[in-house]
Amino acid sequence: MPRAKVTSKGQITIPAEVRKAMGIEAGSTVNFWPNEDGSFRLQRTISIMEMEGCLAGFVVPKSDEEMNALIAQHAWELDEATKSSAEQTAESEAA
Question: Is it the case that residue 20 has pLDDT exceeding 90?
């Protein structure tokens, strides 16, 4: 398990194997995300340039109406996914 010693100034050197695995280079920035148990998770911050291609295949809506239709469809899908089976049973019994 990689380890690092904290200096009197509160600094650490991230072990080489961790830097390599996380793609951390000189000048990189990292975020420390708190976990519920009081520990922290380290995450490399990526630049906007590194995000190139992350939306490949995403079709941009051509109009406000198309965007509104996509939002409405997504809202309906979320609503359907969260309905309990008890409601569905009650509806089918009433029919």
Answer: yes
Q: What is the pairing mode between strands 40-44 and 30-34?
A: antiparallel
Query: Cβ contacts of residue 40 below 8 Å, gap of 6+?
Result: 32, 33, 34
pLDDT surpassing 90 at residue 39: yes
Structure tokens at 20: 């390599």
Structure tokens at 31: 């975020």
Q: Which of 17, 10, 52 is nearest to 32 (CA)?
A: 10
CB 30 within 8 A of CB 43: yes
CA dist 70 → 61, 64, 82 (Å): 8, 10, 19
CA neighbor of 45 nearest in space, from 18, 21, 69, 27: 27
For the entire predicted model, the pTM comes to: 0.49
Cα–Cα distance, 35 to 25 (Å, whole number): 25
